[in-house]
Amino acid sequence: QVQLVESGGGLVQAGGSLRLSCAASGRSFDTYAMGWFRQAPGKEREIVATISWSGSSTYYTDSEKGRFTISRDNRKNTVYLRMNSLKPEDTAVYYCAARRGLARSTANEYDYWGQGTQVTVSS
After folding, report:
1. DSSP code of residue 81
2. pLDDT of 119 strictly over 80
3. Is the model's pLDDT at 95 over the cut of 90?
4. Rounded CA gap, 49 and 85, in Å?
5. Under a CB-based contact definition with an 8 Å cutoff, are residues 72 and 80 in contact?
6. How many Cα neighbours within 13 Å face the side chain of 68?
7. Close Cβ partners of 109 (under 8 Å, ≥ 6 residues apart)
8. Model confidence over 42-66: pLDDT tens digits?
């Protein structure tokens, strides 16, 4: 079991950058696959990126590929999401999630969630 706390969100102009962090506590963090999801008002939660427990495998949707980078530092029990070239449509609450085993791209397959951090991108 792990507890997750996101940070790093805020207000940024279109074309700007943000780096989100997810601090994890609990044992066996390095055995959990991690994901970043986002949810805009009135919309379903959607995948942003995932990373395997070893960090050797990552996944991005077409809209994020080339702009976002997911990484993890198991020694620090932290997962990061670097977001560049932000667009207004990236505005959402961003959530960090964890599951034991292989990474998955659907939200209902994750076991643990943080409280989220707001990202707002102005035009």
Report:
1. E
2. yes
3. yes
4. 16
5. yes
6. 24
7. 99
8. 999 999 999 998 889 999 987 777 8
